[in-house]
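Model it.
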Amino acid sequence: MGGLVGVRARPFTYVSHVLAVAAAVMVLVWNIHFRGGLAFESTNKNLIFNVHPVLMTIGFIIMGSEAIMSYRAFPGSREVNKIVHLTLHAVALVLGALGIYFAFKNHNESGIANLYSLHSWVGLGTICLYGIQWVFGFVIFFFPGAAPNLKRGALPWHVFFGLFVYILALANAELGFLEKITFLQSTGLPKYGPESFLVNFTALVVILLGVFVLISAIAPAHIEDPHSYSAI
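Modeled.
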């Protein structure tokens, strides 16, 4: 991936961290303060569903963002950064899968059909692609590891596919925010009330987070280094 001329990655990672914290706080305020809280088991099935947007935002989007930026944000050797990158992506994948589980759990216990919306279709596809990407990276770059020439050939595709899946995850998060707030507004939530504004602003913060993460991924770590992700 070509770097951005005259732009260094590190300042963008700082902004991304701030946006990640803001997104995490906002999604927690939404689901705990406005939606009533979180629950693994409850007679109020809405509390079970509330776990879904929290895990998908904090666990999948934010942890995935940190994994992408790990080579830019964390000082350390190539091997250490590789382990951090791999581990953060694994955490994002597990938490994302759990987030999908809670959506299914809520639907099944509430008598709601599964996989009827574009959001659910894209979400299931995204988590599957994320898993394929993680397994590919583990086998080629970590264990057992491919030959050096194969690693060099696979790296651009690994970077491209990883950023593609990340963009897909961001787009589906926006679909999820839109779907949920549209449903709530159709059942009486004020369109110009504080909860509606909070959800819309949370979605905007997630978009901005994605933009800054993508810039940090393609910008060089140093001005004189034109190659992105070169430490993988």
